[in-house]
């Protein structure tokens, strides 16, 4: 492929954990104020989310169904992949039943906001715009986006080299946003409803190149060796985060603790070896 998974993203975990602790302190302090409306709202958010899931005995987790190796449908019609393994481990640790909710890139956040899912584990990158709508956990998986195409296109090494080419991308993804901002009108962007259609567009010759994630491109290259697919350049490093509804600070704190300890215990490394083909970057020292 020409790319190796970046190892700097996991250094953000220490900062994220500390930030989470400070956010909990801030919420606790806010609860001691004299504003009944704010206090009541915070109390509901802090008390209800994690307890509600445990009391109900079921957690609904949104996962990808068209984004191997993070999530796809096997020959028996069952969901499998890195994100599905993480979802199962969360339910096991909570002691509840797991209800998997298949989602696409476009409906991941809406499903969370409309209570169709308690968590979204769907190779989702975090950015300031998305953070206005939902909470993000610390990173649980490595990921970066790039431009991919045939090795015959040897003149492509950056955004400035895409002029005159047709680029496929999944609508509403970080790749779509980054590509749209970076190129001019001389680049034709073809948007598709899901990742499988985007991948198929490259194989069928509908587009010259695609903007997608490294693991998707790796899987595509492995399954289509005759196409000589290679990475042209990295668009953006974007480790995957678990998504939660805004205000559910207690659930966020639990998820962050879960991710960190499963990383320490090696379970997430096992998943990475199984699905991504290599170990996760080492944890930083505190």
Q: Can you tag this structure with a few keywords?
A:
five-stranded mixed beta sheet; 286 residues; alpha/beta; globular; 13 strands; 40% helix
Give the number of helices.
9
If strands are numbered along the chain, what order do they take across the biggest sheet? 5-1-6-13-7
- What is the CA-based Rg, rounded? 20 Å
Poorly predicted tracts of residues: 12-47
Order of helices and strands: HHEEEEHEHEEEEHEHEHEEHH
Q: Characterize the largest beta sheet: strand count, sense, and whether it forms a barrel.
A: 5 strands, mixed
Structural class: alpha/beta
Shape descriptor reads globular
Kindly estimate the percentage of residues that lie in beta strands according to DSSP: 25-35%
Distance between the termini: 33 Å
Question: How many β-strand stretches?
Answer: 13
Helix content, binned percent: 25-40%
Mean of all residue-level pLDDT scores = 84
Task: Kindly describe this structure.
- By secondary structure, the protein is an alpha/beta fold.
- The chain has nine helices and 13 strands.
- It has helices at 12-30, 36-56, 82-94, 108-113, 174-182, 195-204, 214-223, 249-265, 267-275, and strands at residues 58-64, 66-67, 71-73, 79-80, 97-103, 119-125, 134-141, 144-150, 166-170, 188-192, 209-213, 229-237, 240-245.
- A hairpin with a 3-residue loop joins strand 2 and strand 3.
- Helix 1 packs antiparallel against helix 8 (249-265) and helix 2 (36-56) packs across helix 8 (249-265).
- The radius of gyration is 20 Å and the shape is globular.
């Amino acid at each position: 492929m020409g790319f190796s998974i970046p190892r700097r993203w996991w250094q953000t975990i220490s900062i994220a954990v500390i930030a989470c602790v400070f956010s909990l302190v801030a919420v606790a302090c806010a609860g001691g104020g004299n504003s009944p409306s704010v206090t009541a709202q915070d109390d509901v958010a802090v008390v209800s989310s994690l307890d509600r899931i445990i009391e109900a005995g079921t957690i609904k987790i949104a996962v990808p169904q068209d984004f191997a190796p993070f999530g796809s449908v096997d020959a028996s019609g069952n969901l499998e992949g890195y994100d599905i393994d993480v979802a199962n481990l969360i339910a096991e640790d909570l002691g509840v039943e797991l209800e998997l909710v298949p989602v696409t890139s476009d409906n991941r956040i809406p499903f969370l906001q409309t209570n169709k899912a308690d968590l979204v584990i769907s190779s989702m990158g975090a950015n300031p715009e998305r953070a206005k709508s939902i909470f993000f956990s610390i990173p649980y998986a490595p990921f970066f986006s790039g431009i991919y195409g045939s090795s015959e296109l040897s003149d492509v090494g950056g955004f400035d080299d895409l002029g005159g080419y047709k680029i496929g991308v999944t609508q509403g993804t970080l790749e779509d946003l980054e590509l749209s901002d970076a190129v001019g009108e001389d680049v034709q962007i073809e948007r598709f409803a899901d990742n499988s259609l985007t991948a198929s567009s490259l194989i069928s010759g509908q587009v010259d190149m695609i903007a997608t994630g490294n693991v998707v491109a790796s899987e595509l290259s492995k399954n289509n060796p005759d196409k000589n697919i290679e990475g042209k350049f990295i668009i953006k490093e974007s480790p995957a985060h678990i998504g939660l509804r805004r205000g559910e600070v207690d659930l966020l704190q639990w998820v962050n603790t879960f991710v960190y300890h499963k990383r320490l215990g090696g379970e997430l490394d096992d998943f990475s070896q199984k699905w991504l083909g290599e170990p996760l970057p080492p944890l930083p020292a505190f």
